[in-house]
């Protein structure tokens, strides 16, 4: 596949009076610069290696995604399935990559369709997949997702495509098992708890980034950075059918909640830290489970007693012996 290499004299030239304000190509600031021009373009879009802009960023770092939450709440909003979680100490967060600051985990929601030929918000190489899982993170300095949405650099949405798989995906199994308890709209249940690493495929390279608008059911509009990793989930026919058994607010099966595809409108789609084969845009599913790349944050490293009992395996042997004596 052909990758578009940007040239300094060809990359979306701005008016002469703005030229001096354009950050240096190759910096994080250059990515953020385009939010002013492309942040309100509609989403979702088609993502492909072809036509994307290769770009180098620091490695994306994942913290506390192996830490078990205190509780995990699964909700049927009537429009989507929503996952929220609470930790007794520090929440999972991201650093590095295309981020200038720490970005904290907020929530997860899903998109699906009436059959296995539709369901994903984004298309990849002009192909739509059975589903999509979108994970929301917000910049830590804004304290809450609601406040972060007021700022163009406040919210990041990581979008995992869900492929069809013959066998059920263990990543999704512990979530789908709670669907029978939330069939009606506006209902919730507890699931797990399991750490987020048991649901999210973590990555530090090979992903796409673009700017675009997030329009809510209420009609509000916000500027969001969208990340689409080449790593993806998969789901069996039975797992995807569980989504279609959920009811909408009118007590009818919620058969499809994906959004209509939008034009790229010549916006920048950054291909960050490409590494694996460029034959297909999405990577093949791993044959064996991949080891976690999540690390403990300094807050936990400096006070291991904050870890929940399920994470006792992370403690050094001397700490385990002390706990057993207590």
Automatic annotation (TrEMBL):
The protein's name: Alpha-carbonic anhydrase domain-containing protein
PANTHER family the UniProt entry points to: CARBONIC ANHYDRASE, CARBONIC ANHYDRASE 14
GO molecular function: carbonate dehydratase activity; zinc ion binding
Signal peptide: none
Source organism of this protein record: Bombyx mori (Silk moth)
Family statement: Belongs to the alpha-carbonic anhydrase family.
Alpha-carbonic anhydrase domain location: 28-273
GO cellular component, as recorded: cytoplasm
Cross-referenced InterPro entries: CA_dom, CA_dom_sf, Carbonic_anhydrase_a-class
Pfam families the UniProt entry points to: Carb_anhydrase
């Amino acid at each position: 596949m052909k990758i578009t290499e940007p040239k300094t004299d060809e990359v979306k030239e701005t008016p002469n009076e703005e030229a001096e304000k354009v950050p240096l190509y190759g910096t994080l600031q250059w990515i953020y610069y385009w939010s002013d021009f492309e942040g309100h373009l509609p989403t979702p879009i088609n993502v492909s290696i072809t036509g994307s802009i290769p770009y180098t960023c620091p490695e994306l770092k994942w913290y506390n995604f192996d830490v078990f939450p205190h509780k995990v709440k699964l909700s049927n909003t009537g429009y989507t399935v929503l996952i929220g979680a609470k930790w007794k100490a520090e929440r999972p967060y991201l650093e590095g990559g295309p981020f200038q600051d720490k970005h904290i985990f907020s929530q997860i929601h899903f998109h699906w369709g009436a059959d296995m030929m539709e369901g994903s918000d984004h298309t990849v190489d002009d192909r739509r997949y059975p589903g999509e899982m979108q994970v929301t993170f917000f910049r830590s300095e804004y304290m809450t997702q609601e406040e972060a949405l007021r700022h163009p650099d406040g919210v990041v949405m990581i979008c995992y495509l869900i492929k069809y798989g013959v066998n059920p995906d263990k990543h999704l199994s512990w979530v789908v098992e709670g669907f029978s308890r939330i069939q009606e709209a506006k209902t919730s249940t507890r699931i797990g708890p399991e750490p987020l690493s048991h649901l999210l495929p973590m990555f530090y390279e090979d992903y796409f980034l673009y700017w675009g608008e997030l329009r809510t059911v209420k009609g509000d509009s916000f500027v969001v950075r969208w990340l689409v990793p080449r790593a993806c989930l998969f789901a069996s026919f039975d797992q995807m059918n569980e989504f279609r058994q959920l009811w909408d607010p009118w007590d009818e099966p919620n058969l499809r909640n994906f959004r209509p595809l939008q034009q790229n409108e010549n916006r920048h789609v950054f291909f960050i830290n490409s590494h694996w084969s460029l034959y297909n845009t999405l990577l093949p599913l791993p044959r064996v489970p991949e080891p976690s790349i999540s690390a403990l944050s300094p807050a936990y490293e400096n006070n291991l007693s904050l870890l929940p009992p399920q994470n006792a395996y992370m403690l050094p042997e001397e700490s385990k012996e002390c706990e057993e004596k207590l």
